From TrEMBL:
Dihydroxyacetone phosphate binds at residues 191, 220-222, 244-247. Pfam families: F_bP_aldolase. It comes from the Bacteria. Its cofactor is Zn(2+). Zn(2+) 1 binds at residues 94, 190, 219. It comes from Paenibacillus antri. This is Class II fructose-bisphosphate aldolase. GO terms for molecular function: aldehyde-lyase activity; zinc ion binding. GO terms for biological process: carbohydrate metabolic process. The active site is at 93 (proton donor). PANTHER family: D-TAGATOSE-1,6-BISPHOSPHATE ALDOLASE, D-TAGATOSE-1,6-BISPHOSPHATE ALDOLASE SUBUNIT GATY-RELATED.
Length: 307
């Protein structure tokens, strides 16, 4: 187990997704990217009475100049100072090396993602199982990826190639790894949709669901039409229960600040109080809108089954 004592409303990913799937909604996995933007994500979840996942990827940690401990410390500090009571998960997104996963687990993350999707199937299984065994022994959930989810901005991942998840391989993968959640490639992409348009292969999702009970995750939620996401969430037998949203939050922040270029985490934290609150208000509004009109999770916190 980690050395950090978790508040009673901070859950593992497995615990949270079991409830979401049972009640037919998805939990937003919001990536604030800057530690100063963790606060508006939490505020929106509290105001909307919705569970939420706060996440950051290892590539974002590197690009924005943050350590896993800094991110976790800010998360737990704001949960306390803001009086947040809705169910939460602290998640490490796309990560390829075990040392970062180990740092995150030690820092108090309750969920981690091992991304060995670029590797051949058997190597992906071996690396994902290693991460799952390590995390599970410490009370932490694990997400993995099968297939390759494309990107348009290279913030979270390195490559723009896309390879759809094979349902039969998904069955083998889940059985061989014991992971708690599976990110599947079925048409969405990280970043802003410009030339390519979002789509979701519902038949593929349904086939994966029929062959494996693992909780399903869609990355690249920014820019996907709400009706398209609603159909993915409501698939028979349990659809998508975790949706990653990152780009929309940063676009809201930069738009409110009148900027087009990303900042470092230190640059964001150094903004004057009035500017920072203007940015936070924009991010909070975006998160609240996603909860209400995209995920179906508004008001679901009160139905959350406590551990």
């Amino acid at each position: 187990m980690t050395t950090r004592e978790r508040p009673s409303n901070v859950y593992t990913l497995k615990q949270a997704l079991e409830v979401a799937e049972k009640h037919g909604y998805a939990i937003g996995s919001f990536s604030p990217r800057y530690t100063a933007m963790i606060t508006p994500v939490l505020r929106a979840a509290q105001k909307m009475n919705s569970p939420a996942i706060v996440q950051i990827s290892s590539k974002e940690l590197e690009r924005y100049g943050i350590t896993p401990k800094q991110f976790a410390d800010e998360f737990y500090a704001r949960v306390a100072s803001e009086g947040i009571t809705v169910p939460l998960v602290l998640h490490l997104d796309h990560t390829k090396v075990m040392s970062i996963i180990e740092q995150a687990v030690e820092a108090g993350f309750t969920s981690v993602m091992i991304d060995a999707s670029e590797s051949p199937l058997q190597e992906n299984i071996a690396r994902s199982k290693e991460a799952a065994d390590y995390a599970h022994a410490r009370g932490v959930s694990v997400e993995a990826e099968l297939g390759m989810i494309g990107t348009t901005d290279f913030v979270e991942t390195d490559k723009d190639e896309e390879l759809y998840t094979d349902p039969k391989e998904a069955q083998v993968f889940v059985q061989g790894t014991g992971v708690d959640a599976l990110a599947v490639s079925c048409g969405t992409a990280h970043g802003v949709y410009m030339v390519k348009q979002p789509k979701i292969d519902y038949e593929r999702l349904q086939a994966i669901r029929e062959l494996t009970p693992v909780h399903l995750v869609l990355h690249g939620g920014s820019g996907v039409p709400a009706e398209m996401m609603a159909a993915a969430i409501s698939l028979p037998g349990g659809g998508v229960s975790k949706v990653n949203i990152a780009t929309d939050l940063e676009l809201s922040l930069l738009g409110a600040l009148g900027r087009t270029e990303r900042m470092t985490n230190d640059e964001c934290s150094a903004l004057d109080a009035e500017t920072l609150e203007r940015g936070r208000a924009a991010v909070e509004a975006t998160v609240a809108d996603k909860i209400a009109n995209f995920l179906g999770s508004a008001g679901k916190a009160e139905r959350f089954e406590l551990r």
